Amino acid sequence: MTTVAVIEDDLPTSNQLAGWIKAARPDVRIDQWFTRDEAEAALARERYDVVVLDIELGHERNAGVALINAINKRRQGTPVLVVSAMPAAIYRSIMKALDAWDYLQKTTFEEADFIETFLDILRVAKASQAQAPVAAASELALDPLWQRTPTWRGARINLPLTAQRILATLYQRAGEVVSYDELFDVVKSGRNRDNVRKHVSTIRDAFREVDPAFDGIENIPMRGFRWVKAAPRVGFDKLSPNGKK
């Protein structure tokens, strides 16, 4: 059964969100939590398909941030939809950096907007879960539609969006040299070789945080970069997700 957690301290708002979800997907089981403590306890014992949460719970202004961090530490890929009164212009980028899947500002959206966003997230989450064994076998798992956090041999790779686009381009053309000019197409600003090299360095560093032996990106002098088959894992299974023994 599909399970969803609604974490919202205001009872009418919580009931409204739960009601909208139930109307759209009657088969979904919805757990409603109203405090950070009870939400943390539930997230520790239950693997939800989607979590809908507010940033501010009770007197804790950033309780939702702590909950997102707790979800991320579990490395289950649980998507989070943030619904908050905090201004979207400020908090949307913050939530994206925390790997939340989307952000809706209260009083600025209708039921149809919420349902459309929720169902999109649920569909992608279900598809990702179904593909998880295949992704693990192929070592690098990318989501080119959403460009959310990629995984390398099951470990999350934390990359900014531009670096994710460069990584996707290199991986999709594995074995081929991707020129600087071609990589400029996926860099939104700073379209020069130095900037591309910095992004590639960021990608390598992120991979090496989880796999110190990573050498899957080859520098082709004066031309560009190429994704090559990385070296076999050496003691990787003995490493924790942050790359430390």
Automatic annotation (TrEMBL):
Residues 3-121 form the Response regulatory domain. The keyword Phosphoprotein applies. Signal peptide: none annotated. Keywords: DNA-binding, Phosphoprotein, Transcription, Transcription regulation, Two-component regulatory system. It holds the Pfam family Trans_reg_C. The modification 4-aspartylphosphate is found at D54. InterPro entries: CheY-like_superfamily (IPR011006), OmpR/PhoB-type_DNA-bd (IPR001867), Sig_transdc_resp-reg_C-effctor (IPR016032), Sig_transdc_resp-reg_receiver (IPR001789), WalR-like (IPR039420), WH-like_DNA-bd_sf (IPR036388). The keyword Transcription applies. This is Response regulator transcription factor. The lineage of its organism: Bacteria, Pseudomonadati, Pseudomonadota, Betaproteobacteria, Burkholderiales.
